[in-house]
Amino acid sequence: MESLTHDLKDKLAVGNGVPESQRTKDAASGAGPEGKKAPVNGAQDAEGDAENDDDDDDEAEVEVEGDATATKSASKKKKKKKNNKKKKKVQTEPPTIPMSVLFPSKIYPQGEICDYKEDNLWRVTDEEKRALEKKNFDDYNDARRAAEVHRQVRGYARRNIKPGMTMIEICEMIENGTRTLVEANGFESGIGFPTGCSLNHVAAHYTPNAGDKTVIQYGDVCKIDFGVHVNGRIIDSAFTLTFDPVYDNLIAAVKDATNTGVREAGIDVRLGDIGAAIQEVMESYEVEIGGKTFPVKPIRNLTGHSIDRYKIHGTKAVPIVNNGDPTKMEEGDYYAIETFGSTGRGIVRYDMETSHYGRAYDIPKTPIRLPRARALFETINREFGTLPFCRRYLDRVGEEKYLLALNSLCDSGHISGYPPLVDIKGSFTAQSEHTFVLRPTCKEILSRGDDY
Ligand SMILES: [Co+2]
After folding, report:
1. Could you give the residue numbers annotated as active site?
2. pTM of the model
3. Listed residue (193, 262, 250) closest to 226, CA to CA
4. Which end of the chain is more exposed for a tag (fewer CB within 10 A), N or C?
């Protein structure tokens, strides 16, 4: 899920936040279970074992080997023997087996590990940094569980989305899969944000509202951008789905650009430098569609972003052009790097009916006068907190005839609407996105899979 650059946001934003100082006590409570202690288990000890098991995520989709990565102890040998005899658990098609069943140890596979280089080489072996990492294990493990759900759900979606399906069917396939595999349960685990399935010149923030009859066509370019969270740790990852190979170069451009951004990312790296590297790679591509050649342009007013617990858009934006931002990435930061390539202008604006909404992180102090709006706001706080939602998610928790109330919450700044973002009609846009964390000793690309 992408973030809009501030200049456009200022011009077009639906609601305004208020200063931190005006925050009410209630305002801070809705984001999720604050101060929630992650369960303590033997996980810290097991980290070493899990780290040496790089292939885990590749195999997990097909078969999972009991708790082979579980704690090393005196009984290790015995345990392993027993596990090898046990029948390996295999994910079903469509996926129905939750991660906690596929991984009985509750230790989830690591993402791709990238060692730091040059000035940060010392971190790889530093004792203090390693100790810090062990302390953070539960946090990483939450993110890895969400990432494994993402990989398995997207694998199923890529194999099964076919021309002729409605956009609602596509979203429900992904959302049902996510809810089942992550064992959706209030703020403990669930969907991270609305399932984006923006088509063609629509770059982002389209998901169908109820009654939308749109059907995906053979010639469409569809950005599947969905999120999974565990204890508020959100995996935000996207790919572009096409059926016609004519778009292959457009897709290659965004994949290469995103991988470049992820590769360049590191502690103390300037955000503007990452944008510059992404832009250079993106602009090295062209794509021929219908006998006409188009340069691939990065969409310059869309960005990646840092991610905080229960907050999909943290305070840092990762540009996809060289904007000169000197802000540095820091140890412990989680990021979604996402790049958008376009055959159009390379600039998006708002258009069409809004489906995506999100609660202001800091709730405005202004009272909500309409009783209907007050009730709706309570539902939103209870069901989503600060996690973005769409109209279909309000429908499924039983809300009806809420549009007037929702619009009034947008006017008062309690909720922001995020309308679809479009380039010029007739253009095609593609997206690629990964989530990673800058651990103290290495960079972990959490959402990496054997597909992308
Ligand atoms: Co995103």
Report:
1. 225, 236, 305, 313, 338, 433
2. 0.84
3. 193
4. C
